[in-house]
Amino acid sequence: MHCKPNKYTLTSYYPFGMTMPGRNANPGSYRHGFNGMEKDDELKGNGNSYDFGARMYDPKIGRFLSLDPQAKKQPGWSAYKAFLDNPIIYVDPTGETEYFYAGKWIGTDGVDNSLIAVVKNSEVAKEMRACTEEGWYVTPNSNLKNGYNDDAIAVIDKNVLAESLNVLSLALANPQTEFGSVMTEIDGQFVAVQAGQGEPGSGKGPPLPQGDVSIHNHLTYEAYYDKNRGIVMSSNAGEASSRKQYPDGGDVENVFPDYDMNIIVGRIGAPKAHSDGNGGVNVNDTRYSGIALYKQSATPYLKIDEASATKMLKGRKGKTAKRFEKNETKTAEEISQ
């Protein structure tokens, strides 16, 4: 397999995350920086504001820009503190376990652990939303972790989701190239330990090292009709490749066994084709860009469209969030009485 490394970024930071002048090189396509968080350069300029999921962070002053929703649990500290004022030892998690249904925020358990729980059952989502709007937290579940999956919910770490979106962004911008990234859990946080790209046009991705999570894309070129073969050519991130398509094996045989969680990004679904009435074929590319989550089988246990995934990273927003925040204090007072 031929590949060349893809160096995303080289940045030196002061302890609280401000970049050191003259000691960084960052291509515009890479959106993340300090602690693996996504930069929000529109707010205060390049590298001066980071989206930690639940709150925005200013590395120049070492403070978050809004109140810590769990500040009551640490009355001796400022509600705007970051890393307990010691970024060498402590790392703030990116936020609470937040629950989403169809891309919309419907609740939180209030536990700082950087997890996103995607609710798959409409009845569960309806009940959870109703309780949330009354100001109640979701009952914490100690079993939740990255890769957890049952009939009702599937869980993904926020850093893993952010890296998946980053690989998807690269793939959409380079339709004939396959990118790859491997993440591993270090001190409770998932970080990318290696990223790269395959030889453009080869359809082959880079070799991936050991880790906990593998992320790669299927090619994202527009679907078209190949007259010589008489078939519609397209790729589907929602269907892992296997020995059925490739004698030497595909995703299922060559990638999936080495990781606890596998993610394929790209265009999901199958295009529609119909005769144009003149002996030709018209192709309607109805696929959507998104993320598919797998264990070791060829069938994904969850698919998330790009727009919904982006909303999830923004955290607590929408009508349900406003109603929850309005009634949260009232509910807490009722419990204490």
Account of the 3D structure:
With 337 residues, the protein is α+β, with helices and mostly antiparallel strands. The chain has two domains: 3-85, no CATH class; 93-337, no CATH class. It has six helices and 21 strands. It has helices spanning 41-44, 122-133, 158-173, 251-254, 306-314, 319-336; strands at 3-5, 10-13, 19-25, 38-39, 50-51, 56-58, 63-64, 96-101, 104-112, 115-119, 153-157, 179-186, 189-198, 213-217, 224-226, 231-233, 261-268, 272-275, 281-284, 288-294, 302-305. The strands form six sheets. Strands 1-13-12-14-17-20-21 form a seven-stranded mixed β-sheet. Helix 3 (158-173) crosses helix 5 (306-314). The chain is globular. The relative contact order is 0.13. The model is unreliable at 1-8 and 332-337 (pLDDT under 50).
Number of strands: 21
**What share of the residues lie within helices?**
10-25%
End-to-end Cα distance: 66 Å
Count of helical stretches: 6
Q: What Rg do the Cα atoms give?
A: 22 Å
Order of helices and strands: EEEEHEEEEEEHEHEEEEEHEEEEEHH
Q: How does the major sheet shape up?
A: 7 strands, mixed
Low-confidence stretches: 1-8, 332-337
User: Strand arrangement, largest sheet?
Assistant: 1-13-12-14-17-20-21
Rounded mean pLDDT is 82
Give a nutshell description of this structure:
This protein is of the alpha+beta class. 19% of the residues lie in helices and 31% in strands.
Question: What's the topology here?
Answer:
Elements: E1 3-5, E2 10-13, E3 19-25, E4 38-39, H1 41-44, E5 50-51, E6 56-58, E7 63-64, E8 96-101, E9 104-112, E10 115-119, H2 122-133, E11 153-157, H3 158-173, E12 179-186, E13 189-198, E14 213-217, E15 224-226, E16 231-233, H4 251-254, E17 261-268, E18 272-275, E19 281-284, E20 288-294, E21 302-305, H5 306-314, H6 319-336
Helix pairs in contact: 3-5
